[in-house]
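Q: Given only this backbone (237 positions), what sequence would you predict?
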């Protein structure tokens, strides 16, 4: 019993802090995306493709390229932050030292860096474009979904080798999502992934959850991801 009380308090203070941080981001016109999945589903690869894609002239005229900041969450090490930073984008690595999720307290020292990097200089006369904050959560299909972050949208990735039964087994993660990405569709010939089963279980958990099928390896489906993202950046959804 006492343990439940403590957990409630921790979660409540996390949510209140996340809310305050979100207001700071909104004042600076920053749209935040929290990417969650089991380890290895393709979060970092999607971040790399996203950073490159948003800046590619074929996808975005130069005047429409948002400022981007990436936060990488891992228990240990900076492998993912190094991968992302190689794409010449603002990036910081959070090490949770054993915790299997990011919470808003861990983001406290990061938010000022985000605001500094994403706030245009006063002298700039260009029309204010929204900026993008991407948080890659710790690879874990369970408790990242329990901790509210200052981000505006939750994106969950499920890759085809993990199996189409995962929404039924880990419903919280899917119920908290605003978009479900099925990644690694290039592997469909080699794995047993049943889209009918997936869609039926998602329907029971969150009936209107949009699902995008893609492969960060071949690029198939990335157009739908960029369309979804641009709608959120333009405030149309
Ligand atoms: N075949 C295939 N492999 C992919 C695809 N996307 C990512 N991968 C590979 O999957 C592995 C894991 O990808 P990451 O992007 O590191 O996964 P992650 O979710 O960031 O992993 P963690 O940060 O450890 O949780 C890498 O070897 C990627 O190259 C895809 O669409 N198809
Ligand atoms: Mg990663
Ligand atoms: Zn955790």
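A: Predicted residues:
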């Amino acid at each position: 019993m006492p343990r439940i009380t403590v957990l409630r308090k921790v979660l409540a203070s996390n949510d209140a802090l996340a809310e305050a941080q979100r207001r700071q981001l909104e004042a600076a016109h920053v749209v935040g995306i929290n990417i969650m999945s089991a380890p290895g589903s393709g979060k970092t690869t999607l971040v790399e493709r996203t950073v490159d894609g948003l800046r590619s002239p074929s996808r975005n005229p130069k005047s429409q390229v948002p400022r981007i900041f990436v936060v990488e969450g891992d228990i240990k090490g900076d492998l993912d932050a190094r991968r992302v930073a190689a794409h010449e984008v603002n990036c910081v690595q959070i090490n949770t030292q054993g915790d299997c999720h990011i919470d808003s307290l861990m983001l406290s020292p990061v938010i000022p860096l985000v605001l500094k990097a994403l706030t245009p200089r006063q002298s700039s006369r260009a029309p204010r474009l929204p900026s993008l904050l991407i948080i890659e959560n710790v690879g874990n299909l369970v408790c990242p979904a329990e901790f509210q972050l200052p981000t505006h949208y939750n994106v969950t990735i499920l890759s085809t080798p993990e199996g189409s039964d995962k929404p039924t087994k880990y419903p919280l993660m899917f119920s908290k999502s605003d978009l479900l990405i099925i990644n690694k569709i290039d592997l469909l010939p080699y794995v047993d992934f049943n889209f009918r089963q997936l869609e039926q279980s998602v329907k029971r958990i969150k009936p209107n959850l949009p699902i995008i099928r893609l492969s960060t390896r071949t690029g198939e489906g990335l157009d739908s991801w960029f369309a979804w993202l641009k709608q959120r950046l333009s405030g149309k959804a």
